[in-house]
Specification:
The chain has helices spanning 81-84, 90-103, 126-143, 176-195; strands at 17-20, 25-29, 35-38, 43-48, 52-58, 64-67, 111-117, 147-152, 157-162, 169-174, 203-204. The chain is α/β, with parallel strands linked by helices.
Length: 205
């Protein structure tokens, strides 16, 4: 029932969204290399293997966002690649989302941060997950932003649902065929990246 979708955030029309009848809510699906900011009235979702997402909101201004990055930074990327798809990298994804939140009224002193992902879903991706976790922790520490809650590492993929209004983050750990699908999707996306130049505890469900 697409007629029930809310309008979404101006400037982020490229981020896919759908109506979830069971939750009676618009779900915004944040894909690898994307970020999205919201003023509420919708839920932000993403699926992670070795990738990491930071879920950040201003507890007073009612604005928040989710990013989804694959690698810490663009070191070693082909010339021009970082400019072609910068938000695939944590160093770009974090700065871009924070700047967008500040533009929309967020204040650094009121930010609540939750971190999820970085799973060792395959032997080949274990080091990538560890690097992503280390990066986001160091970034937030350098910015003076404590992590309110996190679900990172382990040998699993994750499905995440985040509400910027309440700060509630639901995390479902994925196993079996679903986990393999997530892993294959990330691996394929990572190959594309490398070859195509130019508010409390987390609830598990």
């Amino acid at each position: 029932m697409s007629r029930m979708l809310n309008k979404g955030t101006p400037g982020f029309e490229h981020v896919p969204r759908f109506w979830d009848a069971a939750r009676a809510a618009t779900i915004v699906k944040v894909l690898p290399g994307q970020y999205y900011v919201s003023s509420g009235g919708e839920l932000l979702a993403t699926v992670l293997g070795s990738c990491v997402s930071a879920c950040i909101r201003d507890t007073r201004a009612g604005v928040g966002g989710v990013n989804h990055f694959m690698l810490p930074d663009a070191d070693g990327a082909q010339a021009g690649f970082a400019a072609d798809a910068p938000h695939r990298y944590g160093s770009f994804a974090m700065e871009a989302m924070l700047n967008e939140l500040y533009k929309r009224g967020a204040s650094r002193r009121n930010l609540e941060v939750k971190v999820v992902g970085g799973g060792a879903v395959m032997r080949s991706s274990a080091a990538v997950g560890e690097r992503n976790i280390r990066f986001v922790r160091e970034f937030l520490e350098n910015e003076g932003m404590p992590i309110a809650a996190q679900d990172v590492g382990d040998a699993c993929a994750r499905r995440v649902l985040y509400d910027v209004t309440t700060g509630k983050m639901l995390v479902k750990r994925l196993q079996g065929a679903v986990e393999l699908d997530v892993t294959a999707e990330e691996e394929n996306y990572r190959k594309t990246v490398s070859t195509n130049a130019p508010s409390g505890d987390i609830e598990l469900f």
